[in-house]
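User: If you would, consider this record:
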Amino acid sequence: MCGWGNTFSTEALEGALPLGQNTPQKCPYGLYAEQLQGTAFTAPRSCNQRVWFYRIRPSVVHFPFTNYEGNEQFSPLNSVKIDLGRLVTPQQIRWMPPKKVEEGIDFVDGLRVVAGSGSPQLKTGFSILQYQFTKSMGDRCMCNSDGDFLFVPEKGELLITTECGKLRVKPKEICVIPRGIKFTVDFADSSCTFARGYMSEVYAGHFVIPDLGPIGANGLANPRDFLYPIACYEDRDQGVEYEIIQKFQNQYFSAKCTYSPFDVVAWHGNYAPYKYDLNLFNVVNSVSYDHLDPSIFTVLTCQSAEKGVAVLDFVIFKDRWSVQEHSFRPPYYHRNTMNEYMGLIEGVYEAKEEGFVMGGGSLHNCMVPHGPEEKVFEKASNAELKPERVSEGSMAFMFESTYIINPTEYAMNEMNIDKDYYKCWINIQKHFNPNQK
């Protein structure tokens, strides 16, 4: 299980894609051929990911990079804190939604690292981020050298323009922008003035859909439901000053160019942005007894070198039927070797009916106990076990990793931490009676 197995071809002008070869002596329409390789040249065919662009100018045409100071967290001084200054604590943590950013802040300047593990320099680990912005990026774009971005919108519909084309992404949809592809994030609706959401960034490998194993050929996320952009180019070079923000080893750098970087007239390959509607996820669940492991809710996974162990899994908990017999149906109390960050896109999460709110998050690390709050346990333990809908109108998600997740200084010092989180468990009652089986 390495890649998607799909190769796409799309052209905005008929005949823009060369026939039979990738680099003819002269490309149609006077275009330039440029390859973006998402894996090593020598990666096995089943794992190899690349895209060929046929564009008006090669992307090497820009002025020199300089340090970008617009986002203080990603300045050369503070970037060291992101990689090395993560704070170590075994405490279960819950965050409230972040304070709203000021007017005039775009996606680049509103991006913050909440937690993570590893380093982009060594291509190991990942980071968890939150974005919020109050204006579109306009004539600015971003290119991430560090890893693949996974967008999980919570408020506001996004219009994401990429070198491969455009994607509209709304809450309860996700979008993946692979490493190295330039993109711009704008409001999809001109009447919108605020957008917020969650993100993850994997430094190693790429996201894929998980193997199904005994589930069989169908279930979870269906490959046919992942949508890719079609070629859509901008030919703008009169009075244009575009700014390219390059994220490189958790620092921002800026380069100017006098044309639109989104000048790709045609492309083909299997390394491209995509979106997915989480409502289409086909839930697999128990129809006899017990609450099954959360791995059955995995939408995307980025696998580590150890088989079956993830650098990062993206898992969702959506509305579904619960029909188990003789069972405690909510998530059970547990400690595990994996590490979990959770967020809420919509509604109320089934195991935390109070305090866990949209736009907030929680962190439970390796071997630290967690589970349903006291009220949820009591209600579920005494409920009539009949078929019922679970999480109606709700959508929660989890980033789960084999790597221990450490919060950043920003998350611990500038975000609103719920200091009473422990109270949802502290009053759990003793029910033990040795005289009553």
User: Anything to note?
Assistant: The domain at 283-424 is CATH 2.60.120.10 (Jelly Rolls). The chain has two domains: 8-90+100-277, 283-424. The longest helix spans residues 76-84. The longest strand covers residues 388-401.
